[in-house]
Amino acid sequence: MATQELLTKGKLAKEASLILANVSTKAKNQALDEIRLALDKNAKSILEANKVDLEAGDKKGLSKAFLDRLALDGKRIAEIQAGLKVVKGLSDPVGEVLADWKRPNGLKIKKVRVPLGVIGIIYESRPNVTVDAASLCLKTGNATILRGGSDAINSNIALVAAISEAVEKAGLPKGTVQLIENTDRALLPEFLKLREFVDVIIPRGGADLIRMVTENSSIPVIETGEGNCHAYIEKTANQKMAIEIAINAKCSRPSVCNAVETLLVDAAIAQAFLPKLSVELLKQKVEIRGCGQTRKILPSAKEATEEDWEKEYNSLILAIKIVSGVEEAINHINKYGTRHSETIVTKNKRAAELFTKGIDAAVVYVNASTRFTDGGEFGFGAEIGISTQKLHARGPMGLPELTSYKYIIHGNGQIRA
Amino acid sequence: MATQELLTKGKLAKEASLILANVSTKAKNQALDEIRLALDKNAKSILEANKVDLEAGDKKGLSKAFLDRLALDGKRIAEIQAGLKVVKGLSDPVGEVLADWKRPNGLKIKKVRVPLGVIGIIYESRPNVTVDAASLCLKTGNATILRGGSDAINSNIALVAAISEAVEKAGLPKGTVQLIENTDRALLPEFLKLREFVDVIIPRGGADLIRMVTENSSIPVIETGEGNCHAYIEKTANQKMAIEIAINAKCSRPSVCNAVETLLVDAAIAQAFLPKLSVELLKQKVEIRGCGQTRKILPSAKEATEEDWEKEYNSLILAIKIVSGVEEAINHINKYGTRHSETIVTKNKRAAELFTKGIDAAVVYVNASTRFTDGGEFGFGAEIGISTQKLHARGPMGLPELTSYKYIIHGNGQIRA
Question: Fewest CB atoms within 10 Å of the CB: A147, A245, B99, B186?
Answer without folding.
Answer: B186
